[in-house]
Amino acid sequence: MRDDLxxxxxxxxxxxxxxxxxxxxxxxxxxxxxxxxxxxLAACWPFPEPSKTGGGTxxxxxxxxxxxxxxxxxGASRPLVPYFLGYNNVPIHSPAWSDPxxxxxxRQFMPGTLRYPGGTIGNYWDWQSGWFVRGQSLGATxxxxxxxxxxxxxxxxxxxxxxxxxxxxxxxxxTQLNMLRTAKGMGLPVKYVELGNEFYLGSPNDYETAFPxxxxxxxxxxxxxxxxxQEFPDAKVxxxxxxxxxxxxxxxxxxxxxPALHGLDAITFHPYVPLQDGLVSQxxxxxxxxxxxxTIYGRWQQFAGQIQTLPSGxxxxxxxxxxxxxxxGNWSGPFQVFRNWIHGVVVAGMTLSYLEQNNxxxxxxxDMVGRTGNEVVFYDPQGQNDPLPQYAxxxxxxxxxxxxxxxxxxxxxxxxxLSSPSSxxxxxxxxxxxxxxxxxxxxxxxxxxxxxxxxxxxxxxGKAQVMQLTGNPFRLVTxxxxxxxxxxxxxxxLVLPAYSVTQLML
Length: 506
What we know:
TIM Barrel, eight-stranded parallel beta barrel, ten-stranded mixed beta sheet, disordered N terminus, alpha/beta
């Protein structure tokens, strides 16, 4: 993906299927209100205490249509790497890792992986100087050096694993092997390696010059993977897979590339969801949520279909994902989704949906720090008079911070289907996570309905601790007072309010 401030090139010419409100996102059967008790959650909530429970008075623009009472059914468990959820942190629009504000922000999210140096910039990156080759800048708004020493600081502070994006376009194999050798010599783990970024795109032109087809890329990727495995036998190496929708080059990339690949461990995908102008409207919140829900699900089904056809044993790495919101970083631009609470709700649901494909090994949200609208931590290098203060959590930041705290260190994941007496409840997604000694759960209700859950005894009512965030779906989140924040002990009934995310510590 382009790491500059222009609209993303991966929008494609997608055709999203129409569907009902009921997303096929599994439900973690837990819920949210009917929260009783007020026990402290300091051990479960490693973030600054809210100044007040409730975060101020929130008047939703839409009244929940119904309240549904539901019970749960457990699904099959899948293995989970304990570092499943990671992040991109693009140095061309964020401060250096040596900035304590950046480091403190990163620690909050408990990132499992950190992608180095990033997406498109990786195709033009000089790892020795920590900046671009050939005088490239790709729309940089800061000139932040990003060397292995900086990555080392981040890894030591967060415990994350690096994902090295190798420069196959403007560098060579030996130079990139030297980077991995140097990283290993510094004590940095060399476990995950990506062979470039988004070469299936028709622009810039040098992509097509270097790799005229997917088969051409596949042959070179095979050579690079063999050399990497020979020197780093424990490393996993991924080739670039194309997203569905786009021009002929993009649409035929995977079919051409896969037969030419040998010895690769994974394929990367970037399941961005482009939002059409006018998709959402403050004057029609219920319809907007339904349209957004359907668009996200339809786009994911396209990717899921590709992932299901990968060769046996081949993993999928979703090394970039988010919505594509045309309003971008322009505060006065067309009303869309970024930085409003609905963005936090739906990206948490997107992350959980990726667990449905057992061969999805890891995901990396795009991105960590910046002002493009994609970020979980806001930072404006120009220091302008923005609604968000520097280093504030965005809406996505609030929800993914809670999700990261839930998933961190877990080694298995199990979906729960939520159902009423007559049907499956739509718009709710959730999973139960475990590492053998601890159990945690996370639930997203992106629907317009309040869901009352009759708590199964397996979820330890009376003992389990609940943390819940909810709010107006199309309200700009500028701080904790933009949300309703509730903490409590789980009761025998729990209500998932419309537009909420909920954590259970069992």
